[in-house]
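Whiteboard transcription, Tuesday session. T.W. wrote the structure tokens on the left side:
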């Protein structure tokens, strides 16, 4: 109900997704599965000979050929053919255009359309379904199934480790994300009273579900202010802000123009987020502008 320029970010996102879908369905099509989709690359690494895949049974289907009847008076026996009638229906219905009879390939997306097409042809010829079916390479070679294999054990262990890591990360997530950034302009300035001013940019994200108030402190020194304000920042849930924190210190606090120290961000829950910072200062005592002397009082000639 609003024009696109009222929400440009969302509009551009939906326009880009719609454009990619139109490009995919109208032009790219199966090339997405063949070139860009990582599924085939993943399955080539994860599968073994016992894995369940879509497979063509060559022992039953070969040699291929359409069934023929012996002509009247023909004495030469007809060749014995397999169940595959070489109709190519499995190739025609494949969305990526592969021939499943050549074995498992990276382009296979396991859509099973070749199974349905082959079963329909087998039914028309009065033959059993399952020439193309879900099976494993070892099962096709008539080898026994081994349920306990290294990948059967390692993959669940890896997935469990990832799940535990995710839970630990979510449970141990800090109440706020704080990052101390450097100044945008000069590394430091000298104010009128001779003190050295370092401006630090502190980015804060409230990760709690309630508004929070954040304060800043320099435990080793005094003289910390937030842009001349009260020194506190209030943030709504999941809100982010970047504040300029001004640190005013005496020249004597610096050694060779540097001062390693710690800036601590605290919230109203008592959480502390320390950050190591290196403040910059002059290498020589700052020269202050001379203050004008008071004018002499006129002499009293009344005497």
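and on the right, the sequence the group agreed on:
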């Amino acid at each position: 109900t609003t024009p696109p320029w009222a929400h440009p970010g969302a509009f551009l996102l939906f326009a880009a997704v719609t454009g990619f879908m139109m490009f995919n369905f109208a032009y790219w099509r199966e090339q997405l599965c063949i070139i860009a989709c990582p599924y085939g690359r993943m399955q080539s690494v994860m599968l073994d000979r016992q894995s369940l895949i879509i497979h063509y049974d060559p022992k039953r289907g070969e040699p291929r050929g359409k069934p023929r009847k012996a002509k009247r008076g023909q004495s030469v026996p007809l060749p014995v053919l397999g169940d595959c009638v070489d109709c190519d229906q499995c190739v025609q219905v494949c969305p990526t255009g592969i021939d499943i009879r050549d074995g498992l390939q990276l382009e296979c997306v396991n859509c099973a359309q070749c199974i349905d097409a082959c079963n329909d042809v087998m039914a028309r010829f009065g033959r059993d379904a399952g020439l193309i079916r879900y099976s494993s390479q070892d099962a096709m070679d008539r080898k026994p199934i081994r349920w306990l294999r290294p990948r059967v054990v390692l993959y669940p262990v890896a997935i469990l480790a990832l799940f535990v890591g995710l839970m630990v990360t979510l449970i141990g997530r800090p109440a706020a994300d704080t990052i101390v950034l450097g100044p945008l302009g000069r590394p430091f300035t000298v104010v009128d009273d001779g003190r050295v001013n370092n401006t630090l940019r502190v980015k804060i994200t409230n990760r709690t579900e309630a508004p929070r108030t954040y304060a800043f402190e320099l435990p080793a020194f005094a003289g910390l202010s937030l842009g001349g304000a009260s020194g506190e920042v209030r943030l709504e849930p999941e809100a982010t802000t970047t504040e300029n924190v001004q640190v005013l210190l005496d020249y004597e606090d610096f050694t060779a123009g540097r001062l390693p120290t710690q800036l601590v961000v605290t919230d109203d829950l008592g959480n502390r987020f320390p950050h190591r910072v290196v403040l910059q200062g002059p290498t020589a005592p700052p020269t202050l502008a001379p203050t004008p002397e008071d004018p002499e009082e006129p002499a009293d000639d009344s005497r």
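Someone added at the bottom: Residues 150-171 form the longest helix (22 residues).
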